[in-house]
Amino acid sequence: MGKPAIRYSDLFTKTSMAAPQEENSANARLLVRAGYVSRVMAGVYAYLPLGKRVLDKIEAIIHDEMQAIGGHELLLPGLHPQENWKATGRWDKFDVLFKTHGEDGPEYALGPTHEEVIVPVVKSFVQSYRDLPFYTYQIQTKFRNELRPKSGLLRGREFRMKDLYSFHATQDDLDAYYEKALQAYINVFERCGIGSVTVPTIASGGTFSEWSHEFQTETAAGEDTVYYSAAKQMAVNDEVKDKVLAQEDWANETLETRKTIEVGNIFKLGTKFAEDFGVKFQDSDGNSIHPVIGCYGIGTTRLLGAIAEVCHDENGLIWPESIAPFDVHVAQVGKGDELAAFTETVLAQLKALDLDVLLDDGPGSFGSKMKDADLIGIPVRIVIGSRAVKANAVEVKRRTDKDAEMIALDALADYFRAG
Amino acid sequence: MGKPAIRYSDLFTKTSMAAPQEENSANARLLVRAGYVSRVMAGVYAYLPLGKRVLDKIEAIIHDEMQAIGGHELLLPGLHPQENWKATGRWDKFDVLFKTHGEDGPEYALGPTHEEVIVPVVKSFVQSYRDLPFYTYQIQTKFRNELRPKSGLLRGREFRMKDLYSFHATQDDLDAYYEKALQAYINVFERCGIGSVTVPTIASGGTFSEWSHEFQTETAAGEDTVYYSAAKQMAVNDEVKDKVLAQEDWANETLETRKTIEVGNIFKLGTKFAEDFGVKFQDSDGNSIHPVIGCYGIGTTRLLGAIAEVCHDENGLIWPESIAPFDVHVAQVGKGDELAAFTETVLAQLKALDLDVLLDDGPGSFGSKMKDADLIGIPVRIVIGSRAVKANAVEVKRRTDKDAEMIALDALADYFRAG
Known about the structure:
Chains A, B: Pfam families: HGTP_anticodon, tRNA-synt_2b. Two copies of one chain form a homodimer. The first copy, chain A, is built from twelve helices and 24 strands. Chain A has 419 residues and is of the alpha+beta class. The first copy, chain A, has two domains: 36-313, BirA Bifunctional Protein, domain 2 (2-Layer Sandwich); 326-418, 3-Layer(aba) Sandwich (Rossmann fold). In chain A, strands 1-21-20-22-23-24 form a six-stranded mixed sheet, sandwiched between helices. Chain A has a five-stranded mixed barrel with strand order 10-11-14-12-13. A three-stranded antiparallel sheet of chain A has the order 5-7-6. In chain A, β23 and β24 (405-408) form a beta hairpin. In chain A, α2 packs antiparallel against α5 (171-191) and α2 packs across α8. The first copy, chain A, starts with 5 loop residues before the first strand and ends with a helix. At the A-B interface, β2, β3, α2, β4 and β5 of A face β2, β3, α2, β4 and β5 of B.
């Protein structure tokens, strides 16, 4: 048995048919118009009830996949001690770091990433090789002082992010876990409905290691360019293209150029942060050595924006079923006791099918309700009007279909069970 | 069917028998020692896997009660535009406001509360009396630049808080909703296991209205003093005591003085914030007027600290069942295939009972494992040693009991079903 339907009017948001002037990206224009988000200022959004529901579904998938690879959830703070960022040399070098003053003098960083907190936090627990490996993650709010926030939810000053950190006794152990994490990331994007357009992409490992991997989602509005090998099911990014193609096993690949958005990345950090904070353990031979660390990020609000960027048409959003805010959008057109009673009968059937329902029984016209339903983009729309009551049937349309069909009330369960 | 048991060693945290020197409160001393939280700096904590599980359970109860009074969840940002705080006159007056500079000049506030964001966010959606009332809430991270953070999790520079905002066409409608919210708060504290020591307390309404209500939890370490009337099941705080007792219906009350911690408060804000942001709607007579607003807060990390403050003894934490990180703590003492197989049998039974289990099968001694179990404070402890295998029974002890009892394996389900 599912939950009772939620009345659209209780969510307090409304759609807007006018495109917001300050938004230049499809994701923000649609998400603002449909009432999923509200722009608080450049690069900072509020996630309204519809948007929060989508974000929750995305994050539930990520929780599931992170726990499947042994991740245990924690929650690290947004306020970081200055000394931690000085210890890693990033206080002055990390170019989007927000800083704030405490009343009593000390400056804090607002966390744009959490190596500076997680590594000192685990320090007292890592004493022996028997304490390793372990994997811990959070989904939490990050701050980055972007000079020019842009592309709606894709590059903000404040965003939510899943960051997992893995701690290992040996490089081999990190290498093996990294492959598991890469597969978990493929699963996340597949389950969020953008698997077919998202590819792991070889990128630079920066100062930490030779390579890292990005996950790049193809879209016309993409700000990155990657080169995709269908044979390898792997892409390379611009930055490392020449270096990768110089390798023997990539030399003869046929590459397809794609415009993409980065939706995740995974990194081997080596021992840098363990060295900075003096984290050491005794290996099985009694030597005192540093653990090697991996980090694995997905911006969850960015992913929401990327999915909106990929999954829409000229009429509005088209959510993948797995992350849609509701399963069914029921629009009751008209009023009256008989109609309301019929709607209740339909809602009871949908509840028995464990479907989450958004009910629009407000005073709007047929036309405006259909426009709203297209804009909001819930996978299935059911229209209930006086015709429905007479026919003892409802008008059902998938968001991806062109035409609606009449489904008799006693065939509705089969319609949804058939999927 | 429940989830598989979680191995204590996978959580990566360890208990510590030494009291942390920098902590002067029972809640922080115990939560740090037991591995629930880690102090990042004064007033800022990391919530480790055990602590995150308790926080999740507390927040799930709050979600449930807020949704039961019509609340729909959203998520507002931590970064606030300076102009919003100037609009309410609180930019210079709110004395614990953290401020931070953007790269391109503007200053931001770090949200210590969210009237300055929610009111402008809803503005475009409130046009007619038909759009009211509505209720929306979030559970999110707040920042307050406390001069002297103290009392562990009770007064921090960063903390999580549930804040619900209600919007009404009339004062009467707000008044009626306020009573529902007050009852929902009583439910929250009851369900979190501190109902018997938590009382609604009349407090000042500040500049907004005559009265507000705090929820005050009795504890020896309380920093507040309230005066409780058993007949009214209501207390008054220090600030308004004289004014309340001057009222006829309080004049003859017998009052009991209690040391308490504030764990929640509810406020009628009137029209102040709607005026500041020019939020107006047309009433049924066509007049353009301001909605009246209520706000309702619970610090969820503070509540966790308060529960720890109330629910412990000299050996450690004693979690109420509803919010314990796990239902059962299984300590396997010793090693060997036979013992491990017996443990698996016990775990399978607990899983079938849908109980969440923490499994400590590490190398520790019986004594250290019992000390750990007391310190961590999970409601039921099961010890499995060689004696258990021979007897085909396990040693079971509730955290609140003095002595353990042997329960035959085939009676274990009944033990838990009896509750």
